[in-house]
Sequence to fold (186 residues):
Amino acid sequence: MNKILSVFLMGIFGLISFNVTAEENNMVDKKVLVAYFSATGTTAGVADKLATVTGGDLYEIKPEQPYTMADLNWQDPQSRSSVEMNDRSSRPAIASKVEDMSKYNVIFVGFPIWWYREPSIIDTFMESYDFAGKTVVPFATSGSSGIGESGKNMQSLAPNAKVFEGKRFSASVSEEELKTWADEWL
Fold:
């Protein structure tokens, strides 16, 4: 009887050990990039927290020509951001490239909401790489505006990726909330 019980318990512990190892291996297989554009620093703060909780690499999408406060004046129809957002084909240049996008499986892409969608520089980013077979998850910052159609827009720019709807966060989002949200893709 003791031998049967011992064999049974060894089998149970073996299965538990196998499941833990399989879960750990799944996490190891996921290489995460947190790429973000931040005009005023709000999105940068959320991106930094997200990279911390996911163990991901952090990459700032910096415009080749930095935005000034005048460029960001959404009330001025002639400001740079207004002109870019009114022209869906606008593609502001990015100052640097991700060194090796091929090593990432999951890419979180962060941005402030501009005119109820992602800024045009995010469109530049999405068209700059081959996202085939990758998981792309948008995250946005805004005081009140939702993420809108950003996920759908980004999916159209990376048709061979799986782009999710994403989520809007406030600047004060906790690391715990970000981890709970991000774990869905990890």
Q: What stands out?
A: The first strand starts at residue 32 and ends at 36. The chain has two domains: 1-30, 31-185.
